[in-house]
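testing teh design pipeline on a random one, pls ignore if ur not involved
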């Protein structure tokens, strides 16, 4: 600003002064100053580590809010009032991203991930009193600031990744990832998705799709109680063919009408055109080999629909598509494909070939009698063109768990944790008719 040709320096107001002028209460002003320091530091270091810095800042903001609400000096309405005041102050200084809704997300983030930074900074814990269970937030903040003088936050986090486990900060998870994880109500499922996102390198969009398709719950069907615990603690460990099988297989990304209206070639063509999405549904480790790979037996030609190679299991995987209920002829055909690959294609370094039949429905008893000794190599899974409903999945889980062991506890109620994708036009019309 200039006055009669002479420059005049205008002193910028401090955060406390700005908060006071905005009409905030004294308690809000103090809390705002502490959060201001956190976010101001995050803003100045954002170029060095976008993901980790923002995640840490959001966690610290959530912690500040929780600590203030838990002091017990305010009435029940205090929490919502102070969030509104904070939102106004923070949005004015830091722009969009600090609405009341987002501040509630930050608060929940701290509740669900109370030990996020414990591994990162090896902060001492004093369990003698509830208020000292975790180190002071500003102590963590200063530790992050001091370390960042010579090392970026991402580099700090990377140095601790060797012993990383779910619940701790991981620089490969963005705030968008954490937002999706916070929508998962089951702690076991959340831990699984967190680990699998790291192991498989899922983008936030891919993670959302896996949560929406209830991947964790679908994998439960082929596991006993120990397997369920392993899923939650270690993610999906693939050591045998059954580990890669999902039932049902969800193909909602194809946006196709009901299966009985299609021929197998149409489904196959759609899968090839959406191969990236299909590989995501199949799971990590699959490499595409070819489509309609010809087999010749004494002049007769046969064409398996899709052939993959599984890198972790070190074996070929043949997939056949059926637009009707599984029958003994389908099993016999797959048995021939698997035997051919075992004798003519696989090498000494390869493990036995896996066969997977994708069908609209199946009869497990028929499969049991036809396959006999090959039942550990050949599998059948149903596929569907829409995300599974909660009721369908609960019924399936209950049935499978009872078969595994009558002593297992009853299946907990599963609730969808994020907004489902829009269903295809034909499915939507069908549901509309059923409602009438």
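output:
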């Amino acid at each position: 600003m200039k006055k009669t040709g002479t420059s005049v320096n205008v002193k910028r107001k401090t955060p406390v002064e700005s908060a006071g002028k905005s009409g905030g209460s004294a308690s809000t002003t103090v809390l705002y100053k502490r959060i201001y320091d956190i976010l101001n530091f995050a803003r100045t270091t954002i170029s060095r580590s976008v993901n980790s810095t923002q995640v840490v800042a959001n966690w610290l903001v959530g912690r500040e809010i929780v600590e203030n609400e838990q002091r017990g000096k305010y009435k029940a309405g205090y929490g919502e009032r102070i969030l509104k005041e904070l939102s106004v102050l923070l949005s004015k200084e830091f722009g969009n991203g600090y609405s009341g809704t987002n501040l509630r997300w930050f608060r929940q983030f701290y509740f669900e991930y109370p030990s996020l930074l414990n591994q990162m900074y090896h902060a001492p814990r004093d369990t003698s009193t509830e208020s000292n269970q975790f180190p002071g937030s500003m102590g963590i903040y200063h530790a992050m600031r001091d370390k960042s003088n010579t090392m970026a936050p991402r580099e700090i986090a990377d140095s601790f990744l060797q012993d990383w486990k779910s619940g701790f900060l991981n620089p490969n998870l963005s705030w968008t990832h954490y937002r999706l994880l916070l929508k998962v109500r089951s702690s076991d499922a959340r831990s699984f998705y967190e680990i699998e996102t790291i192991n498989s390198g899922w983008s936030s969009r891919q993670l959302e799709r896996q949560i929406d398709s209830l991947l964790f719950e679908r994998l439960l069907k082929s596991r006993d109680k120990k397997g369920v615990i392993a899923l939650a603690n270690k993610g999906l460990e693939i050591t045998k063919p059954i580990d890669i099988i999902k039932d049902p297989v969800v193909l909602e990304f194809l946006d196709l009408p009901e299966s009985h209206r299609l021929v197998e070639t149409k489904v196959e063509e759609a899968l090839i055109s959406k191969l990236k999405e299909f590989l995501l549904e199949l799971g990590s480790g699959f490499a595409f080999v070819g489509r309609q790979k010809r087999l010749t037996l004494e002049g007769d030609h046969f064409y398996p629909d899709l052939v993959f190679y599984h890198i972790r299991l070190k074996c070929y995987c043949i997939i056949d598509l059926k637009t009707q209920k599984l029958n003994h002829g389908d099993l016999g055909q797959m048995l021939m494909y698997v035997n051919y690959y075992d004798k003519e294609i696989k090498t000494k370094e390869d493990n036995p070939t896996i066969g997977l039949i994708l069908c609209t429905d199946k009869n497990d008893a028929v499969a049991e009698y036809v396959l006999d000794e090959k039942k550990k190599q050949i599998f059948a899974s149903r596929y569907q063109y829409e995300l599974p409903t909660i009721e369908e999945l609960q019924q399936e889980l209950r049935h499978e768990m009872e078969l595994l062991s009558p002593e297992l506890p009853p299946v907990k109620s599963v609730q969808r944790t994020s907004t489902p994708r829009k269903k295809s036009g034909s499915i939507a019309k069908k549901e509309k008719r059923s409602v009438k």
